[in-house]
Fold:
Amino acid sequence: MKVLKFGGTSVGSPETILNVKNIVESQSEPVIVVVSALDGVTDQLLRTARTAASEDSSYMEQYSVIVDRHRCMVDAVVMPDKKEAVAVKVNELLDELGNILKGIYLIKDLSPKTTDAIVSYGEGMSSILMTGVIEGAEWFDARKFIKTTSYFTKHIVDMELTRSLIRETFKSLPKVALVPGFISSDKNTGEVTNLGRGGSDYTAAILAARLHATQLEIWTDVDGFMTADPRVINNAYTIESLTFVEAMELSNFGAKVIYPPTIFPVFHANIPILIKNTMNPDGPGTYITREVESDQRKAIKGISSINDTCLITVMGLGMVGVTGVNYRIF
Structure:
């Protein structure tokens, strides 16, 4: 069994969605497919909610754009025999979303709880849509087995409970299990929560680790980790293999190929990660494991960078023993 995660750009257009269909249906073993919201939809949902909270009636126009995009996508890619059923489910979610936005507009308030609920509709709709695209796909609600607990203002996964629920949910696997990424629920209240930006990667990694998958595949819009930012270095090339530690270092310092927390669950379970390009499925990608072959070891694997950042060095003996220096600096 493998876990395949497809990001927003992989489900952003009819062409890329059909690529996803071909990739999944060509698998020879059962797979769990984790999908993000359609490309850009999470940001659209947040903008629309904030517009409504500011008592600006133009939120309706922004909402209409979201509605039209999802309905057009259903028409474009869902198999004919599933189109009606998928359209009904997607329209139900769109109606719920519209009612929540209307409520925000009327009371002029957008709480963190409501924000979590709103952004969950992106993955909810995209995953239901994909069940009508991929032959034999069965939908599973991530809110029922990815459980979180509050930690200050964050939602932290309760790993012990989540592992138990995943094991119970996936006692028997269909040919294709379709799971919305990013979405979770509070273990005490049952309220909708989420795993934050990049959370779909994390959902996939948790599933792969708990179910002892043979491999976690992250399908995105690049061929893998590059030796440098190709927008800066025009002869940068794909790195064929990395260790978990190397991948984490590159991710933490600017290489936005994989969400860094994704690596922790699969590292401890020793499950390899393969980064692949949905638009170039025949490319080798980047293979991430605990160790790499001796002929792949290099002193420098890649260079990552973070834009718009300043490094300020403050030094001088005049600061020694002086109270309040840090306060005045910061």
